[in-house]
Amino acid sequence: MSLRRLPAIAALTLVALAGCEGPGSEPTGRTDAETATPTQTAAPGPERKWTRGYPNSIAVLGHSGATGENSAPDQPGVEVRENSWATGTNPEVNSVYLRILERNPAIEGQNVNYAEAGATIDQVAAQADRLLGDDPDTDLILIQVMDNDLTCPLDTTALDDFRARVIAMLQNLDRSAPNSSLFVVSQFGSVPTYARSLTRDERASQGGTGPCDFMTPTGDIERKKVRRLERAIHAYEGTLKAACEQAQRCSYDSGAFAGIVDRREYLSDDFNHLSIEGHAKAAAVTWNAMHRAGVLPRTR
Description:
By secondary structure, the protein is an alpha/beta fold. Helices cover about 35% and strands about 5% of the residues.
């Protein structure tokens, strides 16, 4: 099964660059991912550096869900990083970065996007190492990982390995970037709502016959396979939550992305990535979730 069929769902939490750009840059090309071995041990860190205000710098680690890939209708298949929900500069998206900039001008230009298409946990861990080499004092680090590691039917051995690698990465960041706050996001949308947001013809274009291909080549929805894939996704999301709890300064969005009701306008034309509207929705949801978690100042 190709999990890239589930954009904001199974695989859009889905979703390259190797070689990162400098602070504030929004690169548009892709490069090969570097390899790195995350450190396994953790050490308690200090309280958040900016508990009473908004951060002075932000970075995102992850897959193509954060790169703006295929988000511009006139640039099919292209990463348009200014459309990223996390660090983008397009006012139509009103990214997390732009929302912070409105409240804290000191963050201007301090928005770095390390995300890369197809990134697995190993590649995201390598992104984390590059960030630590570039700026270990980054205030806010957003993390979007899961889709490209997801196994369906669920493989518990692979899930346990994923959990160990996520914990290692988060603890590495927790120890090596002691003034940073980490925020991990869940899966965007759900399998059932994603399927219902598409027309029968659109579902047929994405359909398959594998054990987790919940849309058939005729555009039907196989509910047994929907449940099978949902179980796998929820297991991986539970792992993200549990892993985050192993790092002192990590917060999980508590499934906020998963609570989004998918609409066709949130998806790009490839059905595997977010549109500009989708990135705007993801930015708004993340913004609210960070306030609820106390990562950003609580609103009155």
